[in-house]
Amino acid sequence: MVKLRLKRCGRKQRVIYRIVAIDVRSRREGRDLRKVGFYDPIKNQTYSNVPAILYFLEKGAQPTGTVHDISKKAGVFKELRINQAKFH
Name one GO biological process term (predicted). Predict the structure, then answer.
């Protein structure tokens, strides 16, 4: 099973998280399938590769709570509903 979750990067007291698609059994810093964005909690900046996130969500990937909230603010789920409406 694949999850969309945060992977910690940066240095001490200056953390940045990458949003990655990763196998559930992997560690937090384990090998990811694909990098799909990043989140900087200090500057409160996010970047999301929306087509890549949509691809993994359509394939059944489950986002963690934090990634779900970040994606919701970016409007990913609105686009997911639009895409699903087109194909049904």
Answer: mitochondrial translation
The domain over range 2-87 is classified in CATH as 1.10.645.10: no
With 0-12 / 13-18 / 19 or more C-beta atoms within 10 angstroms meaning exposed / middle / buried, residue 21 is buried
β-sheet with 45-48: strand ranges across: 45-48, 34-40, 14-23, 2-11, 62-63
User: Is the distance from CB of 61 to CB of 26 less than 8 angstroms?
Assistant: no
In tens, the pLDDT along 13-31 reads 999 999 999 998 887 777 8
Please tell me the distance from the alpha carbon of residue 22 to that of residue 2, in angstroms, as a whole number.
Answer: 6
pTM over 0.90: no
What number is the average pLDDT over the span 34-58? Answer: 91
